[in-house]
Amino acid sequence: DGGITQSPKYLFRKEGQNVTLSCEQNLNHDAMYWYRQDPGQGLRLIYYSQIVNDFQKGDIAEGYSVSREKKESFPLTVTSAQKNPTAFYLCASSWQKGGNEQYFGPGTRLTVT
Amino acid sequence: AQSVTQLDSQVPVFEEAPVELRCNYSSSVSVYLFWYVQYPNQGLQLLLKYLSGSTLVKGINGFEAEFNKSQTSFHLRKPSVHISDTAEYFCAVSRDYGGSQGNLIFGKGTKLSVKP
Questions:
Q1: Which of A21, A37, A39, B25 is an S-S bond match for A88, by CB 3.0 to 4.6 Å?
Q2: How far is residue B100 from each of residues A30, A58, A62, measured CA to CA in Å?
Q3: Is A103 in contact with A93 (CB distance < 8 Å)?
Q4: Searching chain B, which residue's CA lies closest to the CA of residue A47?
Q5: CB A106 to CB B43 under 8 A?
Q6: How far apart are CA A23 and CA A86, in angstroms?
């Protein structure tokens, strides 16, 4: 089955620790995206990548980092510089063309205490 | 700047009643429009999309939406809802500047609550 996987589903970390969220897709999509979702805020774009070895900051990139070493993988690191990291994180992918919908993974709920 | 406004944060409705979820957007150029649905603690699933052509778009689960360019709206409708339609619905518009094709701007969501 083709799709997007995110792991783990739930993640708990102590404040001050970096944490990496996994995102893998087998849809052969060119573009991949990371969003943050907070209650009542909709989805906000953190980073996106249109091609391997290249990525761009989204609207709320501060405190996050990404890499795109393989077409199918786009991991997100939440660093200790992110002031409010507790949130639901969604990864998505799409063909690299306007008008093509984004396909979403099941999400990772990160809790930092 | 582009934006998407979902006019109602919560919409309660009784089962088998019709429902309309409202979405307005702002953009200076032609855009693509999408509606997604999210069930609790899950990712988003595409309901329907408007790219061009007929302004009435039909999607999955009996939903449809109408694109109105003059009013910059893309409202979602269903003539008869079921308990299983209880979820959060997001309207999205494609970003209208080059180099970011495929990027979307999302509204803040509308929680549809269907009561028996």
A1: A37
A2: 13, 10, 19
A3: yes
A4: B103
A5: yes
A6: 18
In B16-115, at which residue ranges do the beta strands (DSSP E only) sit? 19-21, 23-26, 33-38, 44-50, 56-58, 64-68, 73-78, 87-94, 104-106, 110-115
CA distance B40 to chain A (A): 10
Kindly state the DSSP code that residue B7 receives in the 8-state scheme. Answer: S
B31-88 pLDDT, tens digit per residue, is: 889 999 999 889 999 999 998 888 999 999 999 999 999 999 999 999 999 999 999 9
- Which segment of A7-21, A86-100, B4-18, B33-47 scores lowest on mean pLDDT? A86-100
DSSP string, A38-89: ETTTEEEEEEEEEETTEEEE-TT-TTEEE--SBTTB--EEE-TT-S---EEE
Per residue in B85-103, pLDDT (tens digit) is 999 999 999 876 555 556 8
Omega cis (within 30) before A8: yes
Distance CA A78, CA B98 (A): 28
Picking from B9, B41, B106, the nearest residue to A40 by CB comes out as: B9
Choose the closest CB to A98 out of B46, B101, B109.
B101
Does residue A39 register a pLDDT over 80?
Answer: yes
